[in-house]
Write a structure and sequence with these properties.
By secondary structure, the protein is α/β, with parallel strands linked by helices. The protein is built from nine helices and ten strands. The radius of gyration is 21 Å and the shape is elongated.
Length: 255
């Protein structure tokens, strides 16, 4: 197991999101001593322990949920070993969950194609948290290997919308109209501050026509940018990426 504090310092400097879980109090059959700590990343337990077993499994799940939903505020959790965790032994544990390096400006890019491959490197130096989602693992693997970039391979991209925090900026650039539309339906059902869809004015009209026929209100259909990006530059992939990043920064500073 890696030493706790050097690992903590390395993660702090890398910018990768992580959560420290501390056992602050216990009554009865405690799984570990007070002050026991574990360090959790989105990938799972990195080092340390709060006692193993059901307590640690529940704490690990709680910490990963905080990271996946970009919760920035620390919190306490108190669990009864029998009623909350289904353990035979009696007792109560109280744990402190403290997230670090959680971006206050989360961005989710649906699609890892050519424009996303240009856009992600433009966004990486900014003070944001990045998630790129695609059905194709081979395209996700082409993205930069950076701690602050979360790559999600999923066969149901629309379902992934449910896991995003409400302050996420959404960018849709999947393989086309038919794959963007199911995601867009889910996105418009929530008050995300920015929604952009790559495509032409003709695509925008087709999307809005379909959504209106399905019962979406006109104001809901007006919530997304399509074409996405500021009206500058050419149709070169990298210039499109810069125009998208510029529009998101402009919108971020207005909200």
């Amino acid at each position: 197991m890696q030493p706790f504090w050097p690992t903590f310092a390395g993660l702090q400097s890398s910018g990768a999101p992580f959560c420290v879980v501390t056992l602050v109090d216990s009554v009865g059959s405690a799984p570990a001593d007070r002050g026991a700590k574990m360090l959790v990343t989105r990938a799972g337990l990195l080092t340390g322990t709060v006692g193993g077993g059901k307590v640690e499994a529940r704490a690990l799940l709680e910490a990963q949920t905080m990271l996946d939903t970009s919760i920035t505020e620390p919190k306490f959790e108190q669990w009864n070993l029998q009623t909350d965790l289904g353990m035979t032994c009696g007792g109560v544990v109280r744990l402190f969950f403290e997230p670090f390096n959680i971006a206050r400006w989360p961005i989710a890019v649906f699609g890892a194609g050519h424009v996303a491959q240009a856009l992600i490197p433009v966004l990486l130096p900014l003070d944001c948290g990045l998630t790129c989602l695609d059905t194709r693992p081979e395209w996700l693997e082409r993205l930069p290997d950076e701690p602050k970039l979360r790559r999600v391979q999923s066969d149901d991209l629309a379902a992934e919308v449910d896991h995003l925090p409400t302050n996420t900026f959404i960018v849709l650039m999947t393989m086309g109209h038919s794959t963007d539309l199911p995601i867009l339906r889910k996105v418009l059902a929530r008050p995300f501050p920015y929604v952009g869809v790559i495509g032409s004015k003709a695509k925008a009209g087709a999307l809005r026509h379909t959504l209106l026929k399905e019962g979406f209100a006109p104001e809901e259909c007006a919530r997304f940018f399509c074409p996405i990006g500021l009206p500058l530059g050419t149709n070169h992939t990298h210039e499109i990426a810069i125009s998208i990043a510029a529009q998101m920064i402009q919108h971020r500073d207005r909200v």
